[in-house]
Design goal:
Layout lengths: L2 E4 L1 H13 L4 H17 L14 E2 L8 E4 L5 E6 L5 E8 L8
Parallel strand pairs: 1-5
Antiparallel strand pairs: 2-3, 3-4, 4-5
Length: 101
């Protein structure tokens, strides 16, 4: 079974996005479904089948990270920790924003 951890900055992103209304309960449910899928079937499951999550590699400043869509614009940016069964969510964005601030 895989573990999904949130970086402190991602936890802050979620809180601020929820407080501002950019992240709603429906978005949180979809993110929870993403977490559950990764925990049960691993991150490779995000890329198989219909690719519902539109999961893809990232480049440049986000090299070695991946992104999954939880809404039309919203993204979960994450990294798979080598040789461990851990996925670290490093950023949640409601606006398809890949800036690394």
């Amino acid at each position: 079974m895989w573990k999904v951890l949130f970086a402190a900055s991602a936890e802050k992103d979620v809180r601020l996005l929820f407080e501002s209304g950019e992240l709603n309960n429906s978005d949180r449910e979809v993110i929870a479904t993403w977490i559950k899928q990764v925990q049960e079937f691993g991150p490779e499951s995000l890329r198989t089948g219909s690719n519902f999550w539109h999961d893809h590699d990232l480049f440049n400043e986000w090299a070695e990270h991946r992104a999954s869509a939880y809404s039309f614009k919203g993204r979960i940016i994450y990294k798979i920790v080598e040789k461990k069964i851990v996925v670290v969510v490093v950023k949640i964005t409601a606006t398809h924003d890949y800036s690394k601030e």
